[in-house]
């Protein structure tokens, strides 16, 4: 980042795309290949135009013809070309060629790289805006193994030429960041939008790997994508690696459970098991084609002010240890979450929630930004093939179980609630465990922090052990 002095003020200025490309070109050590499929040779063009590219570019190619592409990189099992496996094959193949054709004896100080993208830009009908995979495989020391950065993008622009230009700028930002910002992955991530407006491009998945990123937690990088406004939803699996939501959710039945999971309790898992059982009993639901998601909203992570990254990773660690898929979203309202899911599937969806969350759905204050208010929100919510599974609440004073039958909503919402319930959209979870309804995450969390006894019994099997072993949520071993 260049700094310009103006009086007593320091003004941060972003290097232009040409400046970035030229700096790479003038570095005598950086040398590699460009393989771009689907949107033209947009990235490498910036390096040619910047000047001095002969010291950087070993080869630039575009295998547009599918047969040529298959002959070079092999045939994909699903016969698709704009995929992560295709991109990784491209990166590896081109890097292998560099190693094969350029000897270390002749080039002992070269830092080799292979940059690749496989992209589908907007179609002629403009119904499909386009998306793509972009990545770089690179060295930071000739004797070190390769590092890799792979990301997925979705175009927002409605003009193919503009999309091509945006892709070219992103490619330069990625290569520049890989070599000059690798010691700070958060800044590297932000730099992807240098000279690009966020309304032109969405980045909804990224993974870092290699020796220089050994200590990078990809789940935290996912959080940065949502936090920085690069996307509205990210997803990671039990192994901690980020996944592409569009790929995971495509044509699937979806059951989502929203919560704080701070930490995950027996109540959370009971809701999960009971709602899953009810969801699988639906005739339209195929268990083999169903994805179950534990969702945490950005607003929940910000509940106590600024996002505590350690706290986020503690929650992620527990959910992953239970073999669950986790999603972080910027959708506070449920109807926006359902709209997002609907981009990828028309199959039946389910939302499992407690009484408090259901009451929020009927709170008009959440819909003031909609011209049609709560009615517009409900139209969007229940236009889809959706079921809501409600987990009961136990009133501590009356010891009464609050269900859909005795739930009290605002008087103005009574008729809407009746319509919602009587149309079979709301289903009570009846086969719940009444012995655990006194358990709340916030109470467990406080007990852990205060060093109280008994919190272990409130959590699913194995969770307390994980908390103790990894010192999660401020746990400290008590001296006897």
Automatic annotation (TrEMBL):
InterPro entries: Rossmann-like_a/b/a_fold
Organism for this UniProt entry: Tenacibaculum lutimaris
Protein name: Nicotinate-nucleotide adenylyltransferase
Domain of life of the native organism: Bacteria
């Amino acid at each position: 980042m260049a700094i310009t002095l103006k009086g007593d003020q320091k003004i941060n200025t972003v290097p232009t795309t040409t400046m970035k490309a030229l700096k790479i070109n003038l570095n005598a050590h950086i040398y590699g290949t460009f393989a771009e499929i689907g949107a033209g040779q947009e990235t490498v063009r910036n390096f040619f135009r910047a000047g001095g590219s002969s010291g950087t570019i070993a080869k630039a190619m575009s295998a547009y013809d599918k047969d040529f592409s298959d002959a070079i990189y092999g045939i994909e099992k699903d016969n698709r070309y704009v995929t992560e496996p295709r991109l990784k094959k491209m990166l590896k193949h081109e890097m292998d060629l560099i190693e094969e054709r350029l000897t270390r004896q002749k080039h002992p100080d070269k830092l080799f790289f292979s940059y690749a993208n496989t992209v589908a830009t907007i179609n002629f009908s403009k119904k499909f805006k386009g998306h793509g995979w972009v990545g770089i495989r690179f060295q930071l020391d000739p004797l070190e193994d390769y590092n890799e950065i792979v990301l997925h993008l979705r175009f927002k622009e409605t003009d193919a030429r503009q999309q091509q230009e945006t892709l070219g700028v992103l490619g330069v930002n990625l290569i520049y960041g890989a070599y000059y910002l690798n010691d700070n992955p958060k800044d590297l991530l932000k730099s992807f939008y240098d000279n690009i407006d966020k309304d032109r491009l969405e980045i909804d998945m990224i993974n870092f790997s290699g020796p220089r990123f050994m200590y990078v937690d990809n789940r935290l990088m996912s959080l940065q994508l949502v936090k920085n406004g690069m996307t509205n939803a990210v997803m990671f699996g039990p192994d901690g690696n980020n996944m592409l939501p569009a790929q995971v959710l495509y044509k699937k039945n979806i059951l989502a459970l929203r919560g704080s999971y701070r930490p995950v309790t027996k109540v959370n898992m009971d809701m999960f098991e009971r709602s899953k059982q009810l969801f699988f009993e639906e005739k339209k639901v195929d268990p083999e084609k169903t994805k179950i998601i534990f969702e945490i909203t950005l607003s929940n992570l910000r509940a106590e002010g600024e996002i505590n990254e350690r706290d986020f990773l503690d929650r992620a660690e527990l959910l992953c240890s239970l073999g669950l898929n986790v999603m972080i979203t910027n959708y506070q309202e449920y109807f926006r979450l359902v709209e997002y899911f609907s981009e990828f599937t028309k199959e039946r969806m389910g939302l499992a929630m407690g009484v408090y969350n259901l009451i929020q759905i009927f709170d008009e204050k959440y819909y003031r930004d909609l011209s049609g208010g709560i009615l517009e929100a409900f139209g969007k919510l229940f236009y889809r093939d959706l079921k809501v599974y409600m987990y009961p609440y136990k009133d501590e004073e009356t010891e009464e179980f609050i269900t859909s039958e005795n739930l009290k909503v605002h008087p103005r919402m009574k008729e809407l609630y009746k319509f919602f319930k009587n149309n079979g959209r709301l289903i009570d979870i009846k086969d719940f465990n009444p012995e655990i309804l006194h358990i709340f995450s916030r109470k467990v969390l406080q007990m852990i922090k205060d060093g109280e006894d008994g919190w272990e019994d409130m959590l699913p099997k194995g969770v307390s052990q994980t908390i103790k072993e990894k010192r999660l949520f401020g746990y400290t071993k008590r001296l006897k």
